[in-house]
Structure formats: C-alpha cells, structure tokens
Specification:
Layout lengths: L3 E11 L4 E11 L3 H7 L6 E12 L3 H5 L2 E3 L2 E14 L14 H7 L3 E20 L4 E18 L2 H6 L2 E10 L3 E10 L7 E7 L2 E2 L4 H8 L1 E17 L3 E20 L6 E3 L1 H10 L16 E3 L7
Length: 302
C-alpha cells in the first residue's frame, strides 16, 4: 500500500553450512506519526521496525526445490519496534477474524517447518493518541526474549505437534518483570488459544505512565504484590481468571479541561472510587479473584 520502505542489508546463503543470514532488516514508514495518522480516515497502526543478526540455520536444501522451507532454527539477535495508533480516528469496518499468528501461518502459500525460533534483546514500544485525555499514552516492553516453537503449516507435522507456542519474558515500562506464554492451536479454524502470565511485586505508581493518559486515573499510593492471569479464547471471545495481590491502593479520578487541556482531579469521583475499591487484596475475608469474560470486537486486532 506504499506505506513503507523495506531495507535488507548483507544477505548471504551458505549451502555448505546450510544457513541463510541477513545482517539487518528495516521497515521504514513513509511519514511521521502525525502525518501517517492524518493520511488515513480510520485507525491504522504505524510500524517502525529494525531487526539485526537474522539467521536461519540447518536448512534442508532439497526441500527448497520443492518450494518448502524446512530449517532447524531461526535466530534474531536484536529487535527494535515502535507502534503508533491515533484513537481519534474511527475503527476501520473490516473484520480482523482469521489473523491470529497461527491462522496467518496456515494461510501461507509456501509450506514451512521451523521447530524453534529465538528472538533476543527485543525492545517494543506501543503509543496511543488518546481522545479521553488528548495525550499520547505509551507502554513499552524492554529487554524482551521470546522462544517460539513448532512454526509449521505442514499437515503431517501438525498431526503430531498441533500447538504453536510463544514463551516470553520482558520488562513492562522498562522495569516491571513479566513472564508468560501464548499457545495457539494449528488445527481447525476457530482460533483456539491460551494465554498465561505472571508479574512479581512492584510499586503501583509506576503504572501512572499508562493510567493517566489512557484512562484518566492516577494511582496516588499502593504496592502490587503480584499478578497472575490465565485465559482461553478463540475467534470470538476470551475468558479466564485474573488475580492481583496488592496493598494500600488509593486512586485519583481525573478529568480533562476541554478549554485549557489541563488534567485535574475530580474530588467527588475520587472519594467514591476509594470507597468502592478495596485498598488491599487479600483482605481479612480472603483472596479475591476475577473471572472476566470478553466478547471480541472483530474490527480490532489480536
């Protein structure tokens, strides 16, 4: 769609070692964040991506002649990715069903089988221009490492190994550790997946970088003692359980002055919020957990 330029540097194939290497690969958008957003009449992600040290190892050279890619391992040594979206624009009325990673893999015209992929030192930044605050909220995942297993769309392989798994560890907002995994079914077309994650203790005030611009909520005090979540989902919905242990949690509800664009505290709403929100979990009555269930908006991506 002429939105990007794709740059490859130093591509090499070594038939003796049976490997394929690319020194770097860059996806460069045609315009700045604001110009890119203004070019479209609907919400559209703007990607700016840089990968380096890419190597595909243990290639079956004979399978290439049969238009099939089989290799023992894919390694990417460094990733920088920036994603931006302007939420002032309406959503594009286009179904995104069928675009989960597993489903996109199965749509490929060429057969592929890579048992393992390792992505190291990935820094991922996601930014949203928010209508509620008229500010840009940012969440980043730094020093991320991912291990992806069973990347295949070959039916005979799927009969024996039917799940695509993405295990990850990262630091949210540059400092909050998270580990977890996504697990996708390669059988059928209903998009079955699992998602699990664990986050250890951290200072709740670190979340203000996200909660103020994205939700007009300021955390005034609190410590998160741990988060665990487990979800199952498909093309249409997701459900599971979510547990957050915390103490001394207090919040301020904010509002944006439409004339000055200043962010101010809403006194009565803040009082009501702190009366409604228990300031610790577990309490003397025991541990509380949530069992959320979401119906998917099919115009939104995974």
């Amino acid at each position: 769609d002429k939105s990007y330029r794709f740059n490859f540097d130093h591509i090499a194939v070594n038939s003796l070692r049976k490997d394929f290497t690319i020194r770097s690969f860059n996806i460069v958008p045609f315009a700045s964040e604001m110009s890119f957003a203004n070019h479209f009449h609907f919400q559209k992600d703007r990607y700016e991506v840089s990968l380096s040290g890419i190597s595909l190892q243990g290639i079956d050279m004979n399978s290439l002649l049969d238009k099939r890619l089989e290799a023992s391992q894919l390694v990417i040594n460094k990733v920088n990715a920036k994603i931006y979206r302007d939420l002032h624009k309406p959503l594009e009325e286009k179904s995104k069903v069928g675009n989960y990673p597993s489903q996109m893999l199965l749509k490929l015209s060429r057969q592929i089988n890579i048992p393992k992929a390792t992505i190291n030192n990935a820094d991922i930044e996601y930014r949203e221009n928010e209508p509620v605050s008229n500010k840009t909220g940012e969440i980043d995942f730094m020093n991320s490492n991912l291990t992806i297993t069973n990347i295949t769309n070959i039916p005979a392989v799927i009969q024996n190994r039917s799940r695509l798994n993405i295990a990850f560890q990262s630091k949210i907002l540059g400092s909050i550790p998270i580990t977890g995994n996504f697990d996708f079914s390669l059988k059928g077309n209903n998009g079955d997946f699992l998602a699990n994650g664990q986050i250890p203790a951290f200072d709740a005030l670190q979340l203000n970088k996200v909660s103020i611009p994205m939700a007009l909520i300021k955390i005034s005090s609190g410590k998160i003692n741990g988060i665990d979540f487990h979800f199952t989902g498909d093309n249409n919905s997701a459900k599971g359980d979510f547990v957050m242990k915390y103490q001394d949690l207090k919040v301020d509800v904010l509002k944006r002055d439409k004339k000055t664009n200043d962010i101010k505290k809403r006194g009565l709403a803040t009082l009501a919020a702190n009366l409604l929100v228990a300031n610790e979990n577990p309490t003397s009555e025991g541990l509380r957990k949530e069992d959320p269930e979401f119906k998917r908006d099919i115009n939104k991506s995974f």
